[in-house]
Write a structure and sequence with these properties.
The chain has 246 residues and is of the alpha/beta class. The protein folds into 2 domains: 113 residues, D-Maltodextrin-Binding Protein, domain 2 (3-Layer(aba) Sandwich); 111 residues, D-Maltodextrin-Binding Protein, domain 2, CATH 3.40.190.10. The chain is 43% helix and 24% strand. The chain has 11 helices and 9 strands. Strands 1, 2, 3, 4, 5, 6, 7, 8 and 9 form a 9-stranded mixed β-sheet that branches.
Length: 246
């Protein structure tokens, strides 16, 4: 019992098992580390964590539509917008980490030069199929990519060969399946799918750094607070770093 208590305290989980169901809505960028943390938490407490992943924009709307929702993980920008509009009230925000918009190729494929606007343009024009997440569903990188190709003057050419995915996880599945020659996604999503697929971030003039945060109402249960403590712990932040965050 003493050893078990020490392990629980070391993980920042001080409560006993509650048999409680926690519903977490999260952007796909944190999928891999969050699923691992949820499994660890379930094993230690006996509680259940149900995680629903989606784009940054869709995630917050699904959270708001669920009266039993517990925690929300999405971008700082989305949270600020919803707090300013009053759509999210009486909550606590905890920053988790920042990741960059990047480009992926199927592992083993040649990695194009994307170090400048000119080389990025050439790489996009050379690719036969380009996958990215749906801007209409609130995809952060997908929305940014539309601005990039419009600025480069190749929007029509790129959209003719675009494969629109519902989120970044599906974008990377298309890349790993070789359904797409290039994938546009968060660096974290690329690294979590397969580190060998990462080409790199967008060139400086088109760079996009996105900070993700955990948001939760002040009225959540002690069991939910325990999960928050685990997610925000130094060990969990170290895990996020290995999964493409900084």
């Amino acid at each position: 019992m003493r050893c078990l208590l020490s392990l629980v305290l070391a993980l920042g989980i001080a409560s006993q098992a509650y048999g409680e169901d926690l519903r977490v809505y999260a952007a796909a960028a944190v999928r891999s580390p969050l699923l691992i943390l949820a499994a660890d938490y379930e094993a230690k407490t006996g509680n259940t964590v149900v995680v629903v992943f989606d784009t940054a924009g869709a995630t917050v709307e699904r959270f708001r539509a669920d009266p039993n929702a517990t925690l929300l993980i999405t971008t700082d920008a989305v949270l600020s917008q919803r707090e300013s509009s009053g759509a999210l009230k009486g909550g606590v925000r905890n920053q988790l980490g920042t990741t960059d918009a990047g480009i992926a190729v199927p592992p083993g494929s040649p990695k194009p030069d994307i170090s400048s606007a000119a080389t990025l343009k050439a790489a996009l024009l050379a690719a036969q199929r380009i996958a990215f997440s749906d801007p209409a569903r609130g995809a952060t990188v997908g929305t940014h990519f539309m601005t990039v190709i419009e600025t480069l003057g190749i929007k029509d050419e790129v959209l003719k060969k675009a494969v629109i995915a519902p989120d970044g996880v599906e974008t990377m599945r298309l890349v790993l399946d070789r359904t797409a020659d290039l994938g546009i996604s968060q660096t974290s999503e690329i690294v979590q799918a397969n580190p060998d697929a990462l080409v790199g971030p967008f060139p400086r003039e088109f760079s996009l750094a996105t900070t993700f945060s955990l948001w939760y109402p002040v009225s959540i249960s002690p069991a939910a607070i325990d999960f928050v403590t685990l997610i925000a712990s130094p060990a969990s932040r170290a895990r996020l770093k290995t999964e493409g965050f900084r």
